[in-house]
Amino acid sequence: MQQHHHYINGAWVEACEYTENQNPSDHSDIVGLYAAGSAAQLNLAVDAAKAAFMEWSNSNIQMRANALDFIGNEILANARSLGELLAREEGKALAESIGEVSRAGNIFKYFAGECLRLRGDTLASVRPGVSVEVTREPIGVVGLITPWNFPIAIPAWKIAPALAYGNCVVIKPADLVPGCASALAEIIHRAGLPKGVFNMVLGRGRIVGDALVSNPDVAGISFTGSVATGRNIAAQCVARQAKVQLEMGGKNPQIILDDADLEQAIELSVQSAFYSTGQRCTASSRLIVTDKIYPAFVEGLQARVEKIRVGHALDKTTDIGPVVSQQQLEQNLDYINIAKAEGANLLTGGELLQRETQGYFLSPALFADTENTMRINREEVFGPVASVIRAQDYDHALSIANDTEFGLSAGIATQSLKYANHFKRHARAGMVMVNLPTAGVDYHVPFGGCKGSSYGAREQGSYAQEFYTTVKTSYCF
């Protein structure tokens, strides 16, 4: 079986240990053997990035643009095979997997253009004969720690801006899904970047990730993952005055008002809550429904959820694939049992499913008649589990929506311009959707939230420069 190595200083570097990458749709399918790195190997990667920084940070912007455009084109040209790899290692349905790969390609192509669009300011000084320039410069070596739920898109939206703005990269992808990151590293290798500009070290977070966060030569850490880990990373970065960017959890609300188009509201709720097996930080697991439409919505939603086809991620008839791992499956089942114990009404789902292959298949679970105080509505489940909360009216629904420690994405289904506009202004979330699923965002605009969901500058689009660059003010007489 093929072994996949680290990528350090322009070369593939073997590890002392390799781990199996198992297909969650079919446990007999081993995607490959992937390196399990050490702190020493991580530090070698940082040393390589540090040595390459001066040349790369001052490199020709057209050369950078060409390299990123090449990477984007290669990803798009191989979207099918990369999508199949993604489906095999993460369990995302094939159509969604190919869509994620295409998004990754477009991200690189977008930031190829950003190489040429970095702006500054020229200002008059209050002192005669003095000119002032405000420019942006790269911050140095950046450490990127990415999660398992978007194994190629999230690495892309961190790597691409880091390189575009002249930084050098050390990435530690999630050890659960190393395949897509390794395939992406191979494409980046073919782009011909100078040695040390891009580096990838695979392995466990408590070993490789900890070494990356604590290395004094890493100027900034961009992390996407759990709240507890993110807070720990933030504390370490602040202690040594490194820049930090965090994207963490969500408990995203989807409001359905009495005047909503019922069929549209049901469909967007299904898309928000259950597609990608509910394993999205933007998934809407709290469906807040006002009184008059509540009975019809719950009845229609249950019928629609029961039509969702759960199966092997590579099966073209599959709507949602398996849960990503045994650990995640057990967490989902624990929350389903907690919800039952709290008095939530399980309308459908929440059962293990048998398919032709052995996998982590779980039927989508839908709860009704829940309260916002229940744990099922307070804590992120990160699986195909959603609950319906009854609200008296719009004001009550908005109050429930904002009553959470998180603030990533929020949605509303309504035909009222008044309520739509009010919600856009008053929803305590970084992203607001009107008559659209809470999950599903564009790659050229800012991504991020407030409260416990995010910390630091936004990701994606031109706003990515806020993290990956620093501002310099120059005076000249």
Automatic annotation (TrEMBL):
The keyword Oxidoreductase applies. Residues 12-473 form the Aldehyde dehydrogenase domain. The active site is at E247. One of its GO terms (molecular function) is oxidoreductase activity, acting on the aldehyde or oxo group of donors, NAD or NADP as acceptor. InterPro entries: Ald_DH/histidinol_DH, Ald_DH_C, Ald_DH_CS_CYS, Ald_DH_CS_GLU, Ald_DH_N, Aldehyde_DH_dom. Keywords: Oxidoreductase. Belongs to the aldehyde dehydrogenase family. This is Aldehyde dehydrogenase family protein. It comes from Halioxenophilus aromaticivorans.
